Amino acid sequence: MEKRHEPGRRTVLGAAALGAGAAVLAGAGQANAAGRTEPAGAPAHRPAPAGRPAKLPVPLVVGHRGASGYRPEHTLGSYQLALDMGADVIEAGDLVPTKDGHLILRHEPDISATSDVAQHPEFAGRRTTKTIDGKKITGWFTEDFTLAEIKTLRAKERIPDVRQHNTLYDGVWPILTFEEALQWAEKKGRERGRPVWLHIETKHPTYFRKLGLGLEERLAHLLRRYGRHTAHAPNFLQSFEPSSLSRLGELGVKCPKVVLLDEPSVRPWDFVESGDPRTTADLLKPAGLKWIAGFAQGIGPWLPQVIAQDAKGKLGEPTALVRDAHAAGLVVHPYTVRNENSFLPLDFQVGKDPAAYGNSLAYFKALFATGIDGLFSDNPDTALVAAEEFRRH
Ligand code: G3P
Ligand code: CA
């Protein structure tokens, strides 16, 4: 289980952990007539930066893996529900490859938790242990399956203990290819008369490149085929590995790029492989943000990097990250807000049931009040209710 954004995560990430730039935002920003906080020093009529497309509201809501609070993630059912709820952008990527080089949509290459692969005796022998980005993982991996084999599987709820209601839909949808998601987005865009925006993540790009399954060329090829590679195409691109985004830029993909930020002590895996000593904490500092702005238009920080949490998991004060990122010309799309107690700061939880909903509305509002440009949520409907009072179109 990854620590930074999974259930039960309770790491302290206060101002100290964020380094020198982690001053309290209060006082750094200025409230406008609607009570919104604008970045300090922002001119009244600044041009929309590349990471803040004029056709999208600010703050925007990204349906994380669709509407994964209600349907098994990265399925057509999840994407369609997010669109129906009014999500501004659909996260269609996490992209991982099959053995024969097709890009498919799964949270991780290990599909043990998100598919019925364990119920397929013909694949029992494919269960194995691998080391991905320095972590040993046992399961079934997409790169060991052809697309034809993947298509014999069905998607299921990843966290059934927390989202029992979603298990109703286990087995309803197949695993999607990225091209199928593009075709769905294009069709829905035509039907509603405005494009469906996508937020597309390359997953473990260095790991897959070493296997001969580079993601970026395949992604660039598909984006180009659907006319979604230009600066004004309705996509954001995201990765925890900065070099993946640079490579996409070199391949002529000009859509806004968002560098995802892990826990402060973590080194992006491409840094580990290339011998770059910097950690995420370095990237969170103004100099790191300036470096990111050389090839990307935004950052996707982990929630406690925007508003710190204390040792007990209670919400603390906003950090300086939003101000610093805006000063570097970067938009800020933090991940991931979810309605259930398991994922909320301690003082936003209601009752003791980890699967019950806490006061997520108040947490959403606290995040929007920092001046972020958008956020990822498994519950885009709730996020949109909270976003309304902060929105500027
Ligand atoms: O892409 C935003 C968020 O999903 C990042 O974390 O690892 O769940 O993709 P991950
Ligand atoms: Ca993602």
Topology:
Elements: H1 15-18, E1 30-31, E2 37-38, E3 60-63, H2 76-85, E4 89-91, E5 95-97, E6 103-105, E7 128-132, E8 135-139, H3 147-150, H4 178-192, E9 197-202, H5 205-210, H6 215-225, E10 235-239, H7 242-250, E11 257-260, H8 269-274, H9 280-284, H10 286-292, E12 298-300, E13 307-309, E14 315-318, H11 321-327, E15 331-332, H12 360-368, E16 374-377, H13 380-387
Parallel strand pairs: 3-4, 3-16, 4-9, 9-10, 10-11, 11-12, 12-15
Antiparallel strand pairs: 1-2, 5-6, 7-8, 13-14
Helix pairs in contact: 6-7, 12-13
Residues 5, 64, 94, 201, 238, 260, 300, 335-336, 376 line the site of SN-glycerol-3-phosphate.
3D architecture notes:
The protein is α/β, with parallel strands linked by helices and 393 residues long. It has a single domain (15-392), classed as TIM Barrel. The chain is 26% helix and 15% strand. The protein has 13 helices and 16 strands. The chain has helices spanning 15-18, 76-85, 147-150, 178-192, 205-210, 215-225, 242-250, 269-274, 280-284, 286-292, 321-327, 360-368, 380-387; strands at 30-31, 37-38, 60-63, 89-91, 95-97, 103-105, 128-132, 135-139, 197-202, 235-239, 257-260, 298-300, 307-309, 315-318, 331-332, 374-377. The strands form five sheets. It has an eight-stranded parallel sheet with strand order 15-12-11-10-9-4-3-16. Strands 1-2 form a two-stranded antiparallel sheet. A hairpin with a 5-residue loop joins strand 5 and strand 6. Helix 6 (215-225) crosses helix 7 and helix 12 (360-368) packs across helix 13. The chain is globular. Mean pLDDT is 90; it is low at 5-46. Bound molecules: SN-glycerol-3-phosphate and calcium ion. Calcium ion binds next to loops. SN-glycerol-3-phosphate (G3P) is lined by residues 5, 64, 94, 201, 238, 260, 300, 335-336, 376.
